[in-house]
Design brief:
single chain, 157 residues, alpha+beta, 4 helices, 5 strands, elongated
Length: 157
């Protein structure tokens, strides 16, 4: 029972981290600029929102799409896990949940990797923000969960 609670808490934590990483505006930060996956905030007298028109649009859309897909697959995996707790025959593995979580893991890895390789490579001022770090942390949590689901069997009592 304690292991089950731990898995659910880890999964909820992963979903929350993925959502914050996707929504929050801190993938790249400096004193005057804060950039997320959806826009750029620049400080003049106040903060002003601008579009990400200077970024390669195909790559940006790929990062956006894979981040959103990672959130969707992680949430779906949580619901499937809960459903499988009640419907899966005893002694069976949570393979379908593991597959969904592995896809979520792959999606966030693709998003963060493309962002690392293609964006802000020539900028000297600023650094990666907390949303970027949360994306990589959620990647680690997702891979741990995927492996756990592939190994985990429903207890036969």
């Amino acid at each position: 029972m304690l292991m089950l609670a731990g898995i659910v808490v880890l999964h909820l934590t992963t979903v929350i981290l993925l959502l914050v990483a996707t929504i929050d505006n801190a993938w790249w930060v400096s004193d005057k600029v804060s950039t997320d996956l959806w826009g750029r905030w620049e400080m003049t007298d106040t903060w002003h929102y601008t579009n990400l028109k200077d970024y390669p649009q195909e790559l940006l859309q790929t990062v956006q799409a894979t981040s959103v897909l990672a959130c969707i697959f992680a949430i779906l995996a949580l619901f499937v896990f809960i459903a499988q707790l009640f419907t899966l025959p005893k002694g069976q593995r949570f393979t379908f949940t593991g597959i969904l979580q592995a896809i979520s893991c792959l999606c966030i890895m693709i998003a963060a990797s493309i962002y690392t390789a293609e964006f802000h490579t020539s900028e000297k001022e600023g650094g990666y923000g907390h949303s970027y770090v949360l994306a990589w942390i959620s990647f680690v949590f997702s891979i741990i969960l995927a492996i756990t689901y592939f190994v985990l069997r429903k207890k036969s009592e």
